[in-house]
Amino acid sequence: MSLRTFLAKEPGCGWYGYQDIVDIDIKGFFDEVDHSVLLQLIYQRVKCPTTLRLIRKWLRAPIQINGKLHRRRKGVPQGSPISPLLSNILLDLLDKELERRNLKYVRYADDFSIYTKSKKEARKVGNEIYLFLKEKLRLPINREKSGIRRPSNFEMLGHAFVPTYQKGVKGKYQLVVKKNSWDSLKRKLKQITKKTKPYSFEERLKKLVPKFRERGWVNNYRLASISAKLKSLDEWLRNA
C-alpha cells in the first residue's frame, strides 16, 4: 500500500491511534533476492518461453570479481530498468501477506513499515513478518536497523510525524515534511534567489516554479501539512 492509499483510507490525518510502528530493514535487498524464489513467481505470470529464458539468463549472467567470472544465484542488478519490476513481483507476496492479516502498512520498493496500536501487537507482528521474509522470500533482515518506533521518532520517504493535541484525544499525529527535506529545498532555492545574480523578478520566478511543479516537490509532499511552512518559506525568499 502506498502512503497516499493509506491516508486516503483513513479519514483526517490518517494516523489516529497508531502508536507503535514496526520498522523492518531488509539487508541489502537487491543483492539478496533469491533467484529460485523470484523465477518461480515469474513462471506463474509469464508464459512465453523466450521471455522466461532471457530473464533467467539475465539474472544469472556471471559477474567479474578480481578478474574472475562468478555465476550468480541471487541478486538483481541495481540501476537496470527491469530490476524494480522484478523486485515488486517478489515483494507482491509481502503485500498480500500483510493484506491477508488486515494490517496497516506502507511500502515503497523494499522500504516498508507496519502500523499498530500497541507495543504487544507490534512485537507479535514484527516477529511473524520477520519469519515470513526469512522462510518464504529468503530475505535477510538487518536486526540492528529494525525495531519498533514511536511516530515522533520515525521518518519515512522524507516525511515525519508530530503529535497533535486535542482535549480528550490521544495518539493523534500529523504528517509533516522532515527538517532536512526543507533545508535541502531552501539551499536549492537560495542558489536561484541570490541577490548577487543579475536576474529580474520575472526571471527568478520562472526558475523557481519548476522546483515546485515540474520536479514535483509540492506533489510529493501534498499529503503532509505544508501550508504554514510554505508561507514562512515565501517570507524567507522575499528576504533571502
Verbal overview:
The chain has helices at residues 3-9, 29-32, 35-45, 49-59, 83-100, 119-135, 179-193, 201-212, 217-220, 227-239, and strands spanning 20-24, 63-65, 68-70, 104-108, 111-116, 147-149, 155-156, 159-163, 173-177. The chain is flat. It has a domain at 178-239. The chain is built from ten helices and nine strands.
In short:
With 240 residues, this protein is an alpha+beta fold. It is built from 10 helices and 9 strands.
Strand-helix topology:
Elements: H1 3-9, E1 20-24, H2 29-32, H3 35-45, H4 49-59, E2 63-65, E3 68-70, H5 83-100, E4 104-108, E5 111-116, H6 119-135, E6 147-149, E7 155-156, E8 159-163, E9 173-177, H7 179-193, H8 201-212, H9 217-220, H10 227-239
Antiparallel strand pairs: 1-5, 1-6, 2-3, 4-5, 7-8, 8-9
Helix pairs in contact: 3-4, 3-5
Shape: flat
What proportion of the residues is helical, as a percent range? 40-55%
Instruction: Give the tally of β-strands.
Output: 9
**Could you spell the SSE succession in H and E letters?**
HEHHHEEHEEHEEEEHHHH
Reported for the largest beta sheet, the result is: 4 strands, antiparallel
How far apart the termini lie comes to: 40 Å
Tally of separate helices: 10
Category by helix and strand content = alpha+beta
Major sheet strand order: 4-5-1-6
Mean pLDDT figure: 80
- Roughly how many Å is the radius of gyration? 22 Å
Strand content: 15-25%
Q: Uncertain runs with pLDDT below 50, 5 residues or more?
A: none
